[in-house]
Amino acid sequence: VSDTIAAAVDEGRLWRRLDALACHGARADGGVDRPALSDAEAAAKRQLMDWGAELGLVAYTDALANLFLRWDVGADLPAVLVGSHVDSQPTGGRYDGTFGVLAGLEAIAALRTAGVRPQRPIEMVAWTNEEGSRFAPGMMGSAGYAGARGLAEILAVRDAQSISVAEAIAAQAARLPPLPRRALGRQVHCYIEPHIEQGPVLEAAGVALGVVTGMQGKRTFRVRLTGEAAHAGTAPRASRRDALLAAARAVLALEAGTADPDDIVRFTVGRLTVTPNAPSVVAAAAEFSIDLRHPDADMLHTLGNRVAGICADVAPPCTAEVEELSCAPPQVFDAGLRTALHRAAREVGVAALDIASAAGHDARYLEPICPTAMLFIPCRGGITHNPAEAIESAHAVAATRVLAVLLAAQTATALAAKTG
Amino acid sequence: VSDTIAAAVDEGRLWRRLDALACHGARADGGVDRPALSDAEAAAKRQLMDWGAELGLVAYTDALANLFLRWDVGADLPAVLVGSHVDSQPTGGRYDGTFGVLAGLEAIAALRTAGVRPQRPIEMVAWTNEEGSRFAPGMMGSAGYAGARGLAEILAVRDAQSISVAEAIAAQAARLPPLPRRALGRQVHCYIEPHIEQGPVLEAAGVALGVVTGMQGKRTFRVRLTGEAAHAGTAPRASRRDALLAAARAVLALEAGTADPDDIVRFTVGRLTVTPNAPSVVAAAAEFSIDLRHPDADMLHTLGNRVAGICADVAPPCTAEVEELSCAPPQVFDAGLRTALHRAAREVGVAALDIASAAGHDARYLEPICPTAMLFIPCRGGITHNPAEAIESAHAVAATRVLAVLLAAQTATALAAKTG
After folding, report:
1. How confident is the prediction for chain A on average, in pLDDT?
2. Which residues contact B389 (CB under 8 A, 6 or more apart)?
């Protein structure tokens, strides 16, 4: 039966849909700019709903605008969730997130074509604001669903234009057909997230599929330097409290303070904003983000705890405020599902490799509430969060075949999930 | 007759008008945010036109939206221009620019009250976009009027929202009554610009009036660092080309490379923007402004010519492009007008001090086309381009009395200006 299921996965359809979804928020350079809860993301969701309707899937949402397309098999049992997200970075690629969502949809289509009768519901999911570039921090939809963050706190977050999440959700809902809302935190049988690797390991190994063992930990911070506005032509430099200079010192001191000859520490300042940001005004304030990741919990703790001291050391004559926005410890994924993934890969004849995830994913927030697995496919040169992001159709279809066989196995009985 | 003129300057009216003008674009912190060619600036101009109409002054404009209020005395002679600007920095104060415009208007009112009959026209002027924070570089209206920059080039400049100067001028014109347009570059008898000092010298000397001897030179640059976007969680640091790090290195290297124990060099990076500016994306590009000033032409030349080399040294693995946006050499103001200013100050009994201007002003662009003078008044603590900017009413009225007496002297005959 695995062969029948695998044969029902339609490589051409999957590839065409990846292309079609990339038209929503398309950039002239071939990449995608599809902010969370934007009109472009609404158009992408509407497209998913249309494809889901062709399969008879029922669309619904929740208080965080997560989108679910449910294959309702008549059994009132917790569903198998499969998916990822359809928002992108401002200079994003076409496959980050969308591959997981469309692989889920294609796997459901294949099971139906193959005549599989699941004993429990399967739902494709697109989580809200995984990327966190419009509303920080990211993985908002999955974190809120899983109860890791409170709904009211999430809804109050504002973007750079001062639009709140609540307002953006309402604006996006107005662009979509009315959808029934279900509660956050409904019980999940298991969660499976396919994704591009976003690193060079699978490509270098020449393997189409990665079975993800777990996720490195991540801490994020916001640093604010406060100085004083002054006239660029008149204020003596000795009298200035220049927040832009203080920010430059802090960024370089933090880069040096997290240096790592083994290149395992990931330290990034990706966002920096200056106030008033005018050429002839000494900066009154500057604010920057820190994204710090490490697979080892102790090391992540140690490095993160250095941030405030380093900023305080180099800030004078400005002052520094450091706020930790999120702290996610390293994670290990469900052993039973990993074993099941390897079994499915063997049945379909796809070579698979165990691999750790360097990036954060919505799976991070599902892992504490249900058995969770991730499948990776290679991406060219490890390049991601970049319009040049690219994958091979052969890898995409191979992983989707494995996914479809896994979904059949996970829904073959009405029993609770057996995990390691 | 000087006493009569001086007595006709109304301190209360001048102060009330400074307060009234500060309501257009008022910030909650007491400062002003009145961008060039904004609705707030249109409202300020409309207010000036209303006050001018009470005096019988005729309003007109030109292709750059400079505003002139003309006391038309019936003589077809080049006018004496007096004024400054009414746009502000985003976190600006209430007196930068507006003091010069309102002192001009008050001096005209005093001459009329005192029964003075000028032999040539006097015009109050408010130049467009002196500050340069919405459209860079600044002093756009005066530079275009004087022919230092071409009209087409200026009209094509765009702000951060991609609105062109031409579009912004049309939008502002639509909010004002129709005004007759006169040509740019019409002959000017002389130009007199009152302004706050924007430095600590007059306050420290306890003097109400500065007779400006000249202006320090200024060069501005735009530096662009180009790297490559990458994923903050996956991209090894050794492989990154992080444009934000390169910008931080360049800013600090330039700060060090222009260091000056005498604190005469003014070096400022006031604007820095990052692309895509997302917390979990390694920066693909960063762009920053440089504002460099010095009273000595040779030193200004030497320091400015270091910029490209310093950026190229520290940019790798990113690349740096450096573009010079403007280069204004140091200037010395008209000796005849400076003597006339001292004479007027003596007649009115106001202590005056020779002072160099550290800031740039519209007078820079008028100086090559007509005899030009500037009057400074103290500002508290030398603080400017800041909502905390403050002046004393006694200084404002004293300088306006001197200005009115000077205007009377400069318009007493229909002869060409006598200058040193």
Report:
1. 95
2. B31, B92, B93, B94, B95, B96, B196, B379, B380, B383
